[in-house]
Amino acid sequence: MVSRVIPVDPFDLVVFGGTGDLARRKIMPALFRRCAAGQIPDGARIIGVARHGHDAESYRALIAESLRGEGADPCHLEGFLRRLEYQSLDATRSEGWDGLGIGMGQGVRAFYFSVSPDLFGALAERLHAHGLVTPEARIVVEKPFGHDLESARALNRVLAAHFREDQIYRIDHYLGKETVQNLMAVRFGNMLFEPLWNSQYVDHIQITVAESVGVGARGAYYDHAGAMRDMMQNHLMQLLCLIAMEPPAKFDPDAVRDEKLKVIRALDAVKPHHIVRGQYADGEGCGYRAEVGDPRTTTETYVALRAHISNWRWAGTPFYLRTGKRLVARSSVINVMFKDAPHSIFGEEAGRHANVLSIRLQPNEGITLKVTIKEPGPGGMRLVDVPLDMSFAKALGPENQNPPDAYERLIMDVIRGNQTLFMRGDEVEAAWAWTDPIIAGWQARGDVPKPYECGSTGPGDAELLMKRDGRRWQGINP
Ligand code: NAD
């Protein structure tokens, strides 16, 4: 099964921060792959903007270097680099802006804010002041979107002063992952699951986003954020919304986002004993405090919590969410844990068996359903759990083994003007409104995160969080 590529109309895409880490590692490779796939038409322009004094040639060389790992066909590479232009500009100053508009068409123009969040407001204001905001203009805003509710509101206000909400694309790259979109297809495209998707049949849901790496070069930023702000408030919250939301009337941006917002607003405040905070401990060759150079920092690199959604569908079904760095494996999985069959006709010795629907976001994107069958062979009725494997590569053919990167999908959605997979301003604010009291509680109590070993599954208290409820986490497997 070969996926169809639908070319878009010519556009101008300005990448502010075009020399930065995100632009070189994610944005440009994504654009290159879409270009190689034939989706980017002649006449489309990609303009990198940064403070550095590059010219078009040296900028193309810089990006060509970032694309080395792509195993790029020289012909495709040449075609992509030809579309690249460069403009040196300081977002905090007034000079250079008029030059940016030269050569821009009347069609779609997208401005990607891949710079420090401190500059988002200045960029919005200057784009407007220099007449670059046309009706077809749109902006893409990277995370973090604010540090708390107040700063997110302030940022929403600044952006709203110059752009309509339908021109603002707040990116959460988790929403661009193929399996995350598949989650909606599985839920709302099949009769099979939806009738069971409620507290009557679902015992609980586990959402795990585990990373095996530490903070790396992001230490300075991360130490002011922590896992709660960096991961829980956005990525895990978005996954929770997609799992828990009611079916929208149609797959349209506001219909989907209205339903997600209802989920966030129905979340109860998290009780202090339903949350575990951890920090990877100083050990041999590994340790958060040493990595960020602060022996006393109490920033969490791990959070596990139990959330409750107070609505008819989910009352009584807990959602356990956990995320952390330097864990045993890189693995993002949602496990929908169904209840045991109400009565076992096979007797005590057959054991207890429950279905588990696992949606793996990374690595090895795919979906498995654990079902109970008879163990083969004579000698009575012994039951065994086996996975019904819906790995996309197996089901859809080898050409789908490497689904498009989230950034490929999301950037093309910006160009097409489809906001379904982007966060709306009120959604972000609601997520902060739920997160802020948790962080404020830690600060008020002087909470110190529990240490955990690098390469482990996190602090022991996270296991207790489950054990107290008679449940256990599924393994974190690569
Ligand atoms: P970076 O520090 O590597 O790059 C910053 C870019 O901004 C550079 O091109 C720099 O020249 C440019 N810049 C800085 N000040 C400027 C100014 N006054 N005017 C014009 N350009 C200016 O940062 P990054 O890692 O690429 O991150 C960019 C944004 O993306 C940040 O908001 C970050 O939080 C977000 N983000 C990054 C990652 C990642 O993996 N790097 C992941 C998620 C979100």
Features:
alpha/beta, Rossmann fold, Dihydrodipicolinate Reductase, domain 2, 2 domains, nine-stranded mixed sheet, 35% helix, globular, binds nicotinamide-adenine-dinucleotide, oxidoreductase, EC 1.1.1.49, G6P_DH, glucose-6-phosphate dehydrogenase activity, glucose metabolism
Q: Assign the CATH class of the largest domain.
A: Alpha Beta
As a percent range, the share of strand residues is 15-25%
Kindly identify the CATH topology of the largest domain.
Answer: Dihydrodipicolinate Reductase, domain 2
CATH superfamily of the largest domain: Dihydrodipicolinate Reductase, domain 2
Based on helices, strands and strand pairing, what is the structural class? alpha/beta
Instruction: Specify the number of helices.
Output: 14
How would you sum up the global shape? globular
Number of domains: 2
CATH architecture classification name of the largest domain: 2-Layer Sandwich
Averaged pLDDT, please?
92
Reading side by side through the largest sheet, how are the strands ordered? 14-13-12-11-7-10-9-8-15
- Helix content bin: 25-40%
Q: What is the tally of beta strands?
A: 15
Distance between the termini: 27 Å
Largest sheet, described in full?
A: 9 strands, mixed
Cα-atom Rg, whole angstroms? 24 Å
Bound ligands, named by name, code or SMILES: nicotinamide-adenine-dinucleotide
Low-pLDDT stretches are none
The H-and-E topology, N to C, reads as EHEHHEHEHEHEHEHHEHEEEEEEHHHEH
Function: Catalyzes the oxidation of glucose 6-phosphate to 6-phosphogluconolactone.
Keywords: Carbohydrate metabolism, Glucose metabolism, NADP, Oxidoreductase
Binding site for NADP(+): 17-24, 51, 143
Domain Glucose-6-phosphate dehydrogenase C-terminal: 184-474
